[in-house]
Specification:
By secondary structure, the protein is mainly α. The chain has seven helices and no strands.
Length: 168
């Protein structure tokens, strides 16, 4: 489910960026969303479940109908539960890895951008909380980064996995 979630997000973002997905590709995204919705990574939690939620939210926004509404509601429900658990009061990600933190922040910023573009009331109403959380996360990221913007080497942080501070 995690790689599938990443693929769905990348395909949806590619389409939103001007790369028109074919009808077959959109059909594949729908099949993947259907599969994902039945195989959420509750057993792993953390960044896996967060990315599952993001993929369902984006799929829910990309499609119409009852099934898309269920994907959207499921993704938003997971995010409502997981965001306060995964982002601590100091703004840091609960795994205390700058790399995982940067990945989660990118995910949250993608969701804010999708909400701003969607005008779907159920999603737009979430953005005030998402923006506050993203602000705390940005502060934490700057604090745990080197002056040149590279991520601090804490826990399992490695180069080239998460977006750079500049990209974020």
């Amino acid at each position: 489910p995690y790689p599938l979630s990443l693929r769905m997000v990348n395909w949806i973002k590619a389409d939103a960026s001007g790369f028109d997905l074919s009808p077959d590709a959109w059909q594949s995204v729908a099949v993947q969303a259907r599969y994902l919705s039945e195989r959420l990574e509750w057993h792993l939690l953390g960044n896996h479940l967060f990315v599952n939620a993001k993929a369902l939210i984006l799929a829910g926004l990309a499609f119409e109908g009852a099934e898309a509404s269920r994907w959207l509601s499921t993704g938003l429900g997971i995010l409502r539960e997981q965001l306060p658990e995964q982002v601590l009061e100091d703004g840091g990600h609960f795994e205390r890895s700058p790399m995982y933190h940067a990945l989660a922040l990118e995910d949250l910023l993608d969701l804010i951008n999708a909400a701003d573009a969607s005008e779907v009331a159920e999603v737009v109403q979430e953005t005030a909380d998402w923006r506050r959380t993203a602000g705390r996360m940005l502060f934490w990221l700057r604090t745990l980064s080197h002056p040149d913007g590279r991520l601090g080497r804490f826990n399992d942080t490695a180069d080239g996995v998460a977006p750079s501070n500049f990209e974020i």
